[in-house]
Design brief:
- This protein has two domains: 181 residues, no CATH class; 207 residues, no CATH class.
- Helices cover 69% and strands 0% of the residues.
- Helix 10 crosses helix 16.
- It is globular.
- The two termini are 17 Å apart.
Length: 475
């Protein structure tokens, strides 16, 4: 069930009405309804993997309690590593086994040892990377005594399976979501209005920006050998806005839907393409994942406390692991490595913590420097996206080589340049730039005019005649 589907347009109002007018007696009935709705939502993808979600939920619920109750450190460690091992084991089997098996076979074949790997014929469960990280952070926080174990199974189950964030995040923390789950929610008109505005903006970014750009990006990447340099650059820019509109659009819809039920989710995007350096970009892009790796990998490895070589090592690890988290393909690892190489000079010269504020334009000479920094950051980000989008590393290298042929074909340019895309991206950039300090561009002054104009653009330019999954569903 996609957020941009007719099925979800029917599902959401039904759950909303039941939640506020039938199951509104106390928080237990509210949470129970949301769990039922979440399990139905997830089963629409593949009901068989519902059992994996339930098992993962029970595993971390039980081991969390056992860790807290254990008096001896050896017992605490046993239950802690049991949970970590099983969670990562499931993730490894479903997401990475075939990758490692095929890579190992290729390595053996490369040294003359002919072998045929045994590969699993399984479908990657939707959202497994997201709900696994929910459970991991919960168990880790209990082990290090940052939080207490949750004894109410209904409340904990909702924390793991809450449908707005179940299949593509944001990656929530127990410290943020569980306290809200444990309270009865009362309807808040302003929060509901804000939620609707954010849903509309998210739909605009998905069905108008992302899906329109996808038509051109896919055509260029799929036929890149016959494309000229200018068209390949356009394809890269199209994909940059496709993935931004797709993933941030999903996050906006998730946050907006959750507001309708009186629950706030973590902010996942903060206008990343207005970043002035790559460090700022990663503070604004997929914030819930970046902060997760910071808190549960980078800091435990020593963070920035050690010498420069330790900082470099930890930075490389976190970016490579982040890349690998996105999928079982070397292209994602290279993408993570490229971003690490972008980041290291800032770390070395101690410039990685600048630009922590929102962009402020005073229309002086410094304005040109700011816009130049934003353009450079966007350009190098687009370069890295080539590896993320390519089927394999050889394709990415070939794509880049053709860009540097500096060729131009007027016929290709006419086919790949679209006035619709120019209008759409101009609308997106203008609205987000003028509202870059706000959570949702549509919810402020003149919000009704903005809302109506955006809805009209969705109806006029939205891609409703194609079945387009959200990109991050595959991760």
């Amino acid at each position: 069930m996609f957020f941009n589907s007719l099925a979800f347009a029917i599902f959401l109002p039904i759950v909303f009405v039941l939640y506020w007018f039938v199951f509104n007696k106390n928080k237990t009935t509210q949470n129970t309804l949301l769990i039922i709705a979440s399990y139905y939502f997830y089963s629409c993808w593949d009901w068989r993997f519902l059992f994996l979600l339930v098992f993962s939920t029970f595993l971390d619920y039980y081991t969390g309690i056992r860790i807290e109750k254990s008096k001896k450190e050896n017992s605490r460690k046993f239950w802690f590593w049991l949970s970590i091992g099983i969670n990562l084991g499931f993730l490894g089997v479903f997401k990475y086994y075939n990758f490692f098996a095929a890579s190992f076979a290729e390595l053996l074949n490369g040294v003359g040892l002919k072998t045929s790997p045994f590969l699993l014929d399984v479908v990657l469960p939707v959202g497994i990377s997201f709900y696994t990280f929910h459970g991991l952070s919960y168990v880790i926080d209990i082990y290090y005594k940052r939080i207490k174990a949750e004894y109410n199974f209904v409340d904990y189950s909702l924390f793991v399976s809450y449908f707005p964030l179940l299949v593509a995040g944001p990656i929530e923390r127990a410290t943020h979501l569980l306290p809200q789950v444990k309270l009865k929610r009362d309807f808040n008109t302003e929060k509901a209005k804000e939620g609707i505005s954010q849903i509309v903006w998210g739909l605009f970014k998905k069905v108008v920006v992302a899906d329109t750009c996808a038509n051109y990006a896919n055509a260029i990447f799929d036929n890149y050998p016959s494309m000229d340099s200018v068209s390949l650059i356009l394809g890269t820019v199209y994909f940059a806005f496709q993935i931004y509109g797709d993933f941030s659009g999903y996050s906006d819809i998730a946050v907006g839907v959750s507001k309708l039920f009186g629950i706030d989710l973590l902010k996942n995007f903060n206008y990343p393409y207005f970043s002035r350096d790559i460090a700022e970009f990663w503070r604004r892009w997929h914030i819930s994942l970046s902060s997760w790796f910071r808190d549960y990998l980078y800091i435990p490895l020593g963070g920035s406390k050690g010498g420069m070589w330790m900082k470099i090592r930890n930075t490389l690890i976190i970016f490579l692991v982040s890349g690998f988290w996105h999928g079982a393909n070397w292209t994602y690892v290279v993408w993570g490595g490229i971003n690490a190489l972008y980041f290291l000079p800032l770390l070395f010269f101690k410039m990685n913590r600048r630009n922590t504020d929102d962009v402020n334009i005073s229309w002086s000479l410094s304005t040109f420097k700011i816009f130049g920094s934003i353009l450079i950051t966007f350009t190098i980000t687009c370069f890295a996206w080539i590896f993320f989008r390519s089927d394999n590393i050889l394709m990415a290298i070939s794509y880049i080589e053709k860009i540097f042929e500096f060729s131009f074909d007027l016929n290709n340019f006419k086919i790949n340049m679209s006035y619709n895309v120019i209008i759409i991206l101009s609308y997106l950039i203008l609205f987000e730039w003028n509202n870059r300090g706000k959570e949702c561009p549509l919810y402020n002054s003149f919000s009704r005019i903005k809302l109506i104009s955006t809805v009209l653009l969705i109806l006029l330019l939205g891609e409703f005649n194609i079945k387009s999954e959200f990109i991050y569903f595959q991760f």
